[in-house]
Design brief:
The complex is a heterodimer of chains A (555) and B (143). Chain A has helices at 2-27, 84-96, 108-111, 135-141, 160-173, 190-196, 203-220, 232-236, 241-261, 266-269, 283-303, 310-313, 334-347, 367-382, 397-420, 425-434, 437-454, 482-497, 500-514, 522-530, 535-546; strands at residues 74-79, 101-105, 151-155, 182-185, 224-225, 227-230, 273-279, 317-321, 352-354. Chain A is α/β, with parallel strands linked by helices and 555 residues long. Chain A has a domain at 67-454: Alpha-Beta Barrel (TIM Barrel), CATH 3.20.20. In chain A, strands 5-4-3-2-1-9-8-7-6 form a nine-stranded parallel β-sheet. In chain A, strand 1, helix 2 (84-96) and strand 2 (101-105) form a beta-alpha-beta unit. In chain A, helix 9 crosses helix 15 (397-420). Chain A is globular and about 70 Å long. Chain B is α/β, with parallel strands linked by helices and 143 residues long. Chain B has one domain: Rossmann fold, CATH 3.40.50. In chain B, 50% of the residues lie in helices and 21% in strands. Chain B has a five-stranded parallel β-sheet, sandwiched between helices. In chain B, helix 4 links the parallel strand 3 and strand 4. In chain B, helix 4 packs parallel to helix 5. Chain B is globular, with a radius of gyration of 14 Å. Chain B starts with a helix and ends with a helix. The chains are: A alpha/beta (555), B alpha/beta (143). Chains A and B meet through helix 3 and helix 17 of A and helix 2, strand 2 and helix 4 of B.
Chain lengths: 555, 143
């Protein structure tokens, strides 16, 4: 009896202490200059409920004590199409209309490490993103944008070190030191084999290149996030919410293990990792997923990987609304879907957000559609009042249950992967890629969903119900063949002007370094891009060392 | 060959055989994999080649497997160029099986694909029945 009294009084005092600690941290936070009250003038508290509070381990309720009262999420709109100059124009437009970060979409040849003049690139140059062959294109892409003043995200994986090297080179050629560069490169190669399929080399050499990049940025680029561990594509490929959560965090643990093996200190390295999730339509499941993600990450970092600092345990993430949920039918109604998904991301405590454009089931977005998407998150931020209170759904029995349930399902998947790897999450990831575990699970889930839609057990508005309405006559962005022609000419010109001997020497050096396990490849990548070696030349040189990855075709 | 196709068209003896592939660099295979299972559930035989196939690989599979139709899946805007490449290769090799294109095809390009000789185009939201039906009709029309 007295024991339990003691226990409850110590709980009470620790709860008091947590409250006080939170209050002190909150008071030390700089707040935005807005009135934190409802539309009707009722002042509201920065947080409600009990400990642990936002900014306190295990961070279920958010990573910062004051959350959006201090800083809204970054409205980071993914853009890229056509030539580098075209995308540069879109970037400037986004910055002018209040976007605060750049996010670059590359075209398929760039993502796959092929030059625009490669046979395989036919018809795909500049289509789904911007075409980059050499440093010259990267110079055009960021022309007249002060790289020390923006944070840039680059969505590229297989050839990530090459594009990273180009970004550094552009900055340095403009007199901006690499240490001043802020941003993120996706470089999450594991999910490529699992879901997105934009791989080049086999998993292990790919991990070596990624690890080199992690080491390089750790040492020289303090504001850079060298990996964005991405569930987005896993979800788009068809996974469930819990699979997205578990595969993504499992990959995160694999990168942590690779970094520890490479001699990096988890407390120095882990804070540089960031995450990227999908925000789909099942509102509370998504919010539970986001909350569970933070909690799981913090616990594993602390308990399994021995992190000691809060910073290392904090999961910060970017969110994008679910492209796969957009319908080609009655496309305007996608604006409503996107708004709901954006709200889920914000209520889940995201650090940055991309809202999809309503016309993206049809083509890349028009400028108008992209603006509506940005405006959607501005409405969430400035008109709805949801940014006033941190984790406003925390304490709801349903939301807390859903958070626990997401965590429970994820833990079951981690146990399986850990088992596949005999106690190593990194080896487990390799093994699951090798034996088709991830692709099989994802394909099963995708098919289950499709059958439910087919059978009418799941309603998709405008597709299998409520189908009347105007489906056509939408203006879409059309990328013509002239982009390809322009890009081929550009590439030809660059090849003509550059010093061929310098290109060859830089590639020979890269191959030599890539063949030597203990040397870091990043400086050799930077030298090669500065000599205007093309992306395709660099990739081909490395294929000679590492080989290429071919997926087993299984349905 | 035409006997076998006729038998298949009535849904009796030999089931239709369809080669499914993605051409080009695009790695979005969710749709194609779902379609593969739909067609299987619909009683067709599926030869799934997967990602980054060349037109030569597709044609070799058609010949080897004695397939009745080809389905290719597009998402990234490469549908015109890649469909043309596939049709040209089929013509050059004198292989007379119908080509069905699935995925994201803008309204304005549908006619262009038809002019190229694409037998059917299956857009997003196509049901399981739509897919099976499209294959049956395309094969029947080409027989």
């Amino acid at each position: 009896m007295s024991d339990s009294n003691e226990a409850s009084s110590s709980e009470a005092s620790s709860s008091e202490e947590a409250k006080q600690a939170w209050q002190e941290a909150f008071d030390a936070s700089k707040l935005r200059d807005v009135d934190f009250q409802t539309m009707s003038g009722v002042p509201v508290e920065p947080v409600y409920g009990d400990a642990p509070y936002p900014g306190q381990y295990p961070f279920t309720r958010g990573v910062y004590p004051s959350m959006y009262r201090s800083r809204l999420w970054t409205m980071r709109m993914f853009a890229g199409f056509g030539t580098a100059e075209d995308t540069n124009g879109r970037f400037k437009e986004l910055l002018r209309s209040g976007g605060t970060g750049l996010s670059t979409a590359f075209d398929m040849p760039t993502l796959m490490g092929k030059d625009s003049d490669h046979d395989w690139s036919l018809g795909e140059v500049g289509k789904a993103g911007v075409a980059i062959d050499t440093l010259a294109d990267m110079e055009d892409l960021f022309a007249d944008i002060d790289l020390s003043g923006v944070s840039t995200s680059m969505t590229i994986n297989g050839p990530a070190p090459i594009l990273m090297a180009m970004y550094v080179a552009v900055a340095e050629n403009n007199g901006v030191e690499r240490s001043k560069l802020g941003g993120t490169i996706q470089a999450d190669i594991l999910k490529e084999y699992q879901a997105q399929k934009e791989y080049i080399f086999p998993p292990r050499p790919s991990m070596r290149l990624i690890t080199d990049m992690m080491k390089f940025t750790s040492a020289e680029m303090p504001r850079w996030h060298p990996i964005s561990i991405s569930g987005y594509h896993i979800r788009e490929a068809g996974s469930t919410a819990a699979q997205e959560l578990a595969f993504t965090l499992g990959n995160g643990f694999a990168y942590i293990e690779a970094a520890i093996e490479a001699g990096l200190d988890v407390d120095e390295f882990a804070p540089r990792l960031s995450f990227f999730f999908n925000s789909h339509l099942d509102f509370f499941e998504e919010i539970g997923k986001f909350r569970a993600a933070r909690r799981i990450w913090a616990r594993w970092l602390k308990e399994r990987y021995g992190a000691k600092t809060d910073k290392a345990m904090l999961m910060r993430f970017h969110t994008q609304t679910a492209g796969v949920s957009l319908t080609a039918q009655q496309p305007e109604i996608n604006i409503a879907r996107v708004a709901i998904q954006a709200l889920a991301g914000v209520l889940g405590g995201t650090q940055s957000l991309h809202t999809d454009s309503f016309d993206e089931a049809l083509a890349l977005p028009t400028e108008k559609a992209a603006r509506i998407a940005l405006r959607t998150q501005q409405i969430v931020a400035h008109e709805t009042g949801v940014a006033n209170v941190a984790d406003p759904l925390g304490g709801s029995e349903y939301v807390e249950w859903m958070t626990d349930e997401m965590e429970r399902q994820a833990e079951a998947i981690f146990a399986h992967v850990d088992d596949l790897g005999d106690g190593s999450m990194l080896e487990g990831a390799y093994a699951g890629i090798e034996n088709g575990y991830y692709v099989g699970e994802i394909a099963d889930a995708a098919y289950r969903f499709e059958r439910e839609v087919n059978a009418g057990r799941r309603i998709v508005v405008g597709v299998n119900e409520f189908t009347e309405g105007d489906d056509s006559d939408n203006e879409t962005l059309y990328i013509g063949a002239e982009v390809e022609e322009y890009q081929l000419k550009r590439l030809g010109d660059v090849k003509q002007k550059r010093d061929a001997a310098a290109v060859k020497a830089s590639l020979d050096n890269l191959v030599a370094v890539a063949s030597t396990p203990d040397q870091n490849t990043m400086p050799a990548f930077i030298d090669a891009v500065k000599a205007y070696a093309t992306e395709g030349e660099i990739v081909e040189a490395l294929e000679g060392v590492y080989g290429v990855y071919v997926e087993k075709a299984i349905v | 060959m035409s006997d076998a196709s006729d038998a298949g068209a009535t849904g009796d003896e030999k089931p239709f055989r369809v080669v499914l592939a993605k051409l080009g660099l695009d790695g979005h295979d969710r749709g194609l994999k779902v379609v593969a299972r739909m067609l299987r559930d619909g009683g067709l035989e599926v030869i799934y080649l997967g990602l980054r196939q060349t037109t030569e690989q597709v044609i070799a599979a058609v010949e080897q497997e004695d397939a009745d139709a080809i389905g290719i899946s597009m998402l990234n805007g490469g549908h015109l160029a890649l469909s043309k490449k596939m049709i040209d290769a089929l013509n050059d090799a004198d292989v007379g099986v119908p080509l069905i294109v699935g995925g994201i095809v803008p309204e304005g390009d549908v006619e262009k694909l038809q002019e190229l000789g694409v037998a059917a185009i299956l857009g997003p939201g196509s049901s399981s029945e739509d897919c099976v039906q499209a294959v049956r009709e395309a094969v029947a029309a080409s027989a």
